[in-house]
Amino acid sequence: MIRKKRFTLVLVIALAVVVAFAFGACGGGEQPAEEPPADTPTEEPPVETETESDDVEPAAVKVTIAMLPKFKGENYFDAVKVGAEEAVAELVGEGADVELLYDGPPQNDATNQNQVNILEGWIAQGVNAILVSPNDPTAIAPTLKKAMEGGIKVLTFDADADPDARDLFINQGSYDAIGSGMVKAVASKLTEKGYGPDKTANLGIVSSAKTDANQNAWLDAIKALIATDEYSWLKIANEETDVYYPGPDETETQKQSGTLISRMGDGADQIQAAIGLTSMATPALGAQYESAASKPDATKVTMTGLATPNALKDYIKNDANPLDTGVLWNCMDLGYLSVEAAYQYASGTITPESTTMTTSRLGEREIADKVILLGDALIFDKANIDEFNY
Amino acid sequence: MEQTSLRQAPDGKGKFKKMLTTEFYLLVFLVAILVMMRIAAPDFYSLNTIMTVLNYFSYLLIAAIGMNLIIITSNIDVAAGAIMSVVAIVIAFVGKTGAPLPVFMAVGMVVGLVLSWVNGLFITKLKIPAIVATLATTQLFVGALPLVVEGSIYDLPASFTWLAFRAKLFGALPASVVFAAVITVGFMLFMRYSRFSKKLYAVGNNKYAATLTGINVNKVMILAFVIAGPLYGIAGTIIATGGQRVTTTMANGFEMTLIAAVVLGGTSIAGGSGKIIGTVLGAFILSLITPAMNYIGMSSDWSDAVMGGIILLAVVVASISTLTKKKKTIVVPDAVVSASASSSGEVK
Amino acid sequence: MADGMETLATPKVKKRFGVNFNIALILILIALIAVIGTVNPTFVTYNYLMAVVVKNIMEIGLMALPMTLIVITAGIDLSVGSIMIFSAIAGGMAAASMGDGMGVIVTLLVGAGCGLVNGLVIVKLKINALITTLATFFLFRGIAKGITHGDSVYSYDFTTFAGNTDIKGVPLVLIVFIAAAIIFTLLLSKTGFGRSLYALGMNENATRYSGINADRTLIIIYIISGVVCAIAAFFYLGRFTSVKFDVANSMNLKVVTVIVLGGTSILGGVGDMRGTIIAIFIIAVLNSGLTVMDIPIDVQTIIQGTVLIISLIVYSILGERAKKRRVIEVSKEDEPRLVDKAPA
Fold first, then answer.
1. pLDDT for position B25
2. What is the pTM of this model?
3. Quick check: C240 and A112 CB within 8 A?
4. SS3 of chain A: helix, strand, coil, percent, to 5
5. pLDDT in tens for each of the 344 residues of chain C?
6. Does the fold of domain A175-328 match that of domain A40-173+330-375?
7. Which CATH architecture describes the domain A40-173+330-375?
8. How far away is chain C from the Cα of A155, in angstroms, using its nearest Cα?
């Protein structure tokens, strides 16, 4: 018996160490754990904020904004986060009490379920506003509705959820504008290289997962555009094989981009233009072109796509690489605008009926149909790429 | 496989039977795929496609050889992908400073060695079964990375991507393939002539018997992990240098493909058997699947199912051939036959 | 603490340290709840415990029950997550075209079929369970991906009901889980079938000679595993309103973590259902509790890994000592005082 007790003691001590570790990790984490008394039942905080901020303009009430990207650890969302933090710093500088929580799934496991797990924790804590970029717009809807029922303001940024599952959507640019940005970039380069109505060209596209709302919308915009007379010489020959869906995983994206590159060339059964629809895919196209054994003739093919300028800089500057243009929007401004909108909405400065909102950095933005539009697509090439650093 | 051939009766049929190894079947299967691709999609044989396939094949093979050594000792390593992810991030830190390939690859090999050695210690010193020990360390490695690196490391200099972008033999053959070839030949010689390799098989076959013949079982097992570590390091380096950006999850989950390549190559998960040449064939077949499907016009959505089906088919064929072989060759009392048949199956 | 342990332990000393393990696990569970509850009181509200902590783990919990049986026989099933997703997707597609009834039937059939495939390959073709289920992990998930082309499949009335129904504040899934837990506990500890599983795990050949139909027993538990995965699929699909092939990836290893933490040896022959059940709740509290404390997901992974390693070390130390003690018992049978077992 004595011996047995000792075993158990060992066990208990060992696991007490873990608990201590958990504590340590908690202390090491960014958030000090002093707020719990404030967030009791989930319904209360929003009621407070609304009533108080209605009559007292500078909100003395603490506003906690929780931001959930599709996944962490990639330049695009990093840049968004930088913008979000700038907005928080600016608000704090103006005397507001704002806290930003930021967490997301890892890049190789960017599933809806992981996003839901994180959201559940925030809902239970009673944060004031949630900013989310959903991996799956429909699947996340019930959780977002639950948050709304609990009085939390729900905003989407970067990618939308089902419209009835969020209060506002901060859209980086209209799908058509971004889609046409890419098609025009491809078309003008291909025309220079001798393609046109008399010589059709095949498109190959690297998307993300099949359920990604943005990529699907852009793809639809591209398809609609190449169905028009002006661009009818651009074709997607076989949607089964010429549109790749590697998901957000980096290595898989590299692999499938490599397959696409090896199918490029100027033959009718080859692919003349590659478009990357994610900020992983476009640099992967550039890198796979560089590492290809016999590179497709750069005077016969072209590549473009969405990505942050930093990720494409070397490829765009390199004349031997047919990746000449990149399309994006200002991601730091997107983060900034998202946090501003979340704060103003949670503190009552803007309401669902508002038609405009104002920020000190970006000036006025229109709110139409519960959507706030960030601005125009940003197209960068050799001439202007050095102006950006993100 | 040496053992199998010894067991064969030395009559006339023996020679032909000797050829009917797992490797032989795999080779036939591989040739069949290649011929089919020639007929169905001649485009597949463009220089580019071949080199893209070979590049993936090279790092899959290098890491799979390490996994093969571990599996021969009847262990398994599900932390391999996590280790390669750690290697990728560490060498990106080093490479960011402009250090050349030999420097950061050496760093990668050391990191791989140390982490793999930790796994070996857990398994031998604490007597934790390999699958759960490496499952636990995977969580530590995977969890630690994002704490060290916020996001990805990008804008890596040309010296970092030199291996993937510029280092080509005869202007076409990626240097990574040369690495893989050298390593493969080296390990084939090592497995054939070194005394240590015999110990690997002995430990995998029967730990207790190995102990009785004076082999230090723990040392052999740890060494298997220690040898595998630098191989993961090289594979991780090839993966990381494929682009100007390194993320924290680059090789997570890759261990499943490694194990699949080794198993497809005829190495028994029970340990004590398996040839490097089998792993080479297994890795090559797996690296063909996705691009081959793309060329014959099938959506890559089916590639996982095809991969699972091929592995299952391979082990089923191997199992049926051994089961029937046993029935034919051994003419001994029934009880012994059933005992040997069942002991060759479920292994603890 | 020690007193309580002793009084509880005495009547069941026969089980050696098994009971003490479970008590230690319960203590850990209570300690975790206390610590997290102090840091953030929201955690210990009934609503949060039920709606988040419990609901988030139930599918994994359900799958861990039959998996415990499999691991006790020295087998393993790495394909459970893939079976769940495949059956959920096949059922969802059937429901969309042929109605709810077909959806339910197809889900269960697919689950049972996958289990049967695993069982037949492992038992009849004598292929190692780890390899078989590694291959079927790719195969089932791959088929799920192929038939949906990587797209989502949506919930139907029955799954929506299953995933979102509360009976007097208790989620339906918890009631089903408790019922299943009781059935599996009794099956393992009180029936000849359960005992034959331990025997198979300790020495399969000897068990075969003792007249137990080992083949049938093993195939049955793999089928049970498949069916339970299909049942978990109903709740999962209902709770998330849609599923996609990619969620299965990390699920298998989570189930293995639960079982190992619960004290079942991956080498077979040792383990009990109560340990698994307590471990399920420990993992649940760790997952949801750390989220509530705003600890980033990455740190949660590390903590889970640490818990797993420590429990493995403790089990390994205890296992070694138990082995030594057994040797003492046998060699010194003439001196029963040395044997620290109470009379039966």
1. 83
2. 0.82
3. yes
4. 45, 15, 35
5. 343 333 333 333 334 555 577 888 899 899 999 998 888 888 888 888 887 888 889 999 999 999 999 999 999 998 999 999 999 999 999 999 999 999 999 999 999 999 999 999 999 988 889 889 988 998 999 999 999 988 889 899 999 999 888 888 889 999 999 999 999 999 999 999 999 999 999 888 888 888 888 899 999 999 999 999 999 999 999 988 888 888 777 788 789 889 988 989 888 888 889 999 999 999 999 888 887 787 888 888 888 888 888 888 888 777 777 666 655 554 444 444 433 443 43
6. yes
7. 3-Layer(aba) Sandwich (3.40)
8. 20
DSSP strands (E only) in chain C:
153-154, 166-167, 170-171, 242-243
Query: Is residue B322 assigned to a domain?
Result: no
Provide the pLDDT for residue A60.
58
Cα separation of A51 and B43, whole Å?
69
* Residues 211 through 240 of chain A touching chain C, CB cutoff 8 Å: 211
**A153 in contact with chain B, both atoms CB, cutoff 8 A:** no
Torsion angle defined by CA atoms of residues A116, C137, C183 and C19, in that order, rounded to the nearest 10 degrees: -80
Q: Which among A102-106, B120-124, B162-166, C221-225 has the top mean pLDDT?
A: C221-225
What is the C-alpha separation between C246 and C238, in angstroms, rounded? 17
Identify which of A5, A22, A126 has the shortest CB distance to residue C303: A22
Residue A66, pLDDT > 80, answer yes
The answer to whether residue B327 scores a pLDDT higher than 70 is no
Q: Within a domain: residue B283?
A: yes
Percentage of residues of chain B with pLDDT beyond 90? 42
The topology under which CATH files domain C15-322 is ABC transporter involved in vitamin B12 uptake, BtuC (1.10.3470)
Q: What is the mean pLDDT of residues A187-208?
A: 90
Looking at CA atoms only, how far is residue A126 from chain B in angstroms? 26
Asked whether the beta carbons of C317 and A10 are under 8 A apart, the reply is yes
Q: What is the ipTM of this complex?
A: 0.79
What are the chain C neighbours of B341 within 8 Å (beta carbons)?
126
Q: Which residues of A141-180 are buried (b: 16+ CB within 10 A; e: fewer)?
A: bbbbbbbbebbbbbbbbbbbbbeebbbbbbbbbebbbbbb
The answer to whether position B235 is within a domain reads yes
Which residues in chain C have their CB less than 8 angstroms from residue A8's CB? 5, 20, 23-24
Task: Tell me the shortest Cα–Cα distance from A365 to chain C, in angstroms.
Answer: 33
Neighboring chain A residues of C318 at a CB cutoff of 8 Å: 7, 11
The alpha-helical segments, DSSP class H, found in A193-233 are: 213-226
- Chosen for mutation from B241, B247, B296, B299 (greatest number of chain A CBs closer than 10 Å) is B247
The terminus-to-terminus CA distance of chain B in angstroms comes to: 21
CATH number of domain containing B297: 1.10.3470
pLDDT of residue B43: 79
Strands (E) in chain A, as ranges, are 63-68, 98-102, 129-132, 153-157, 168-171, 201-206, 234-235, 243-244, 273-276, 302-305, 326-328, 356-359, 363-368, 371-373, 378-380
Of A244, A251, A296, the CB nearest to B250: A251
Domain extent at residue B117: 49-302
DSSP letter at A154 equals E
The residues, any chain, with a CB within 8 Å of residue C294's CB and separated by 6 or more, are A26, A29, A30, A31, A33, A101, A103, A121, A125
Contact between A211 and C244 using a beta-carbon 8 Å cutoff? yes
Residue C55: what are its φ and ψ, rounded to 5°? -60, -35
Domain A175-328 bears CATH identifier 3.40.50.2300? yes
Q: What share of chain C is helix, strand, coil (3-state, %, to 5)?
A: 80, 0, 20
Query: Is B256–C135 a contact, with Cβ atoms under 8 angstroms apart?
Result: no
- Structural domains of chain B, count: 1
Domain ranges of chain A: 40-173+330-375, 175-328
